[in-house]
Amino acid sequence: MRKYILSLLLLHFAALSAETADSVMLHIVYNTTYATYGNGHKTHDVMALDVGRTMSHFYSEAQRLRDEQMKKINESNLPPDIAISSAKNVSGGGLQWHVCKRPSGGDSITFYDTFGLDGVKYSVVDNRQQWHIEDGDTTICGYSCGKAWTDIGGRRWTAWFTADIPVSDGPWKLRGLPGLILKAVESDGIYSFCCTSITSGNGMLVDMPSGNYTDCTYDEYKTLYYKYNDDPIQFLVTRTGNSLPIPSSKRKSAIISIDEKPFTH
Length: 265
Fold this sequence. Notes:
The chain is an alpha+beta fold. The protein has helices at residues 2-15, 61-74, 80-88, 218-230, 232-240; strands spanning 26-35, 42-51, 56-60, 98-101, 108-115, 118-125, 132-140, 143-152, 155-162, 180-186, 191-199, 214-215.
């Protein structure tokens, strides 16, 4: 399997030199766990990292499936009552944020998120994380992995990476190690990612997040994040002007951010 993945990487770089669209050379699936406010409850999602020649895209597979199903309903020209009924039967999605970055370098990482009906994105300079290699080798998905840690935004991340797949990338914004990151855990248990499968792209393209996203700064994003998560209903009322009869005790968002303490994207 290791020889197959390495051969795939070499063939991919050779074959795509003249292509404009970026094909997926590796599709990595991560079992994702993240904490919620208050009761310490853990929620699960299935996220994926699509690695191409010039960029990568990290996203929730559950949310992507839901978005595709909703798009089909919206484009079906069904009568409104049938469309609403069909939409109610669509299974719940996952985390709505995406991360796009360049696996071989580049000067920025772009983060996409959605608050109600508002899609926003911001880009930050990729200063590269300063990793510290330590003892703690293990095997994940059949690959021998080394262990390393780094600090990002006041949070300590521990990662396990495999030099058998020479791609300096990983889940979320994590990258910069001499091999693909197959597992990453935040020290307070807020987020964890663990690889469950690695496959070729089978002709897939590296898709950018669909929909309309407004450019903003990192500070503007944090302001929106706090307003939305403090009271999502009031946030929507302010945006739409409509009143929604939901008690304030049930309004606070449950998802803890990932970037920095106490905020983390």
